[in-house]
Amino acid sequence: MASPNRGTSKSLDKPDEHITKGGVEIDVVHLGDLKFRRATYPKGWRFSTHMGADRCHDTHVGYTVSGQMSVELEDGTRLEFRPGSAFIVPAGHEAWVVGEEPCTIVQIDGGESAARRFNVEQRAASAA
Question: Which of 3, 11, 35, 115 could form a Cys-Cys staple with 59, CB 3.0–4.6 A?
Fold first, then answer.
């Protein structure tokens, strides 16, 4: 259940958390039960190269601030994000920065909770 909220504001320039993971710089603010993440991916970044897995297993909902990113879904569909692009990307994707500049995105929530919150279809769990 969502936490009651009477209105609030926080700046990603003064984050609650700062994380560096796989070369990605991530600033996080918490607003009620939501997390907003500003992630800056360096030029040349690729999920499968820098994050230690072939595919990302989180769902992402967000907005592209600067730079460009490409995503390939499990079915082979490719999505391109440029400044101003809003996106929903289901779990099971590969992603990489396109071009010669970093890519900065802002994500709302993240992972399984984003899939539930934004009603994103999840792939069936594979049998072990």
Answer: 115
Rg of the chain on CA atoms, in Å: 15
110 phi and psi angles, rounded to 5 deg = 160, 155
CB atoms within 10 A of CB 94: 18
CATH number, span 17-117: 2.60.120.10
Residue 123: CB atoms within 10 A of its CB come to 12
User: Reduced to 3 states, what is the DSSP secondary structure of residue 93?
Assistant: strand
Closest listed residue to residue 41, CA positions, set 99, 97, 119: 97
> What is this structure's pTM?
0.82
Q: How confident is the model over 106-127, as pLDDT tens digits? A: 999 755 566 666 666 655 444 3
- Lowest-pLDDT range of 30-39, 57-66, 67-76: 30-39
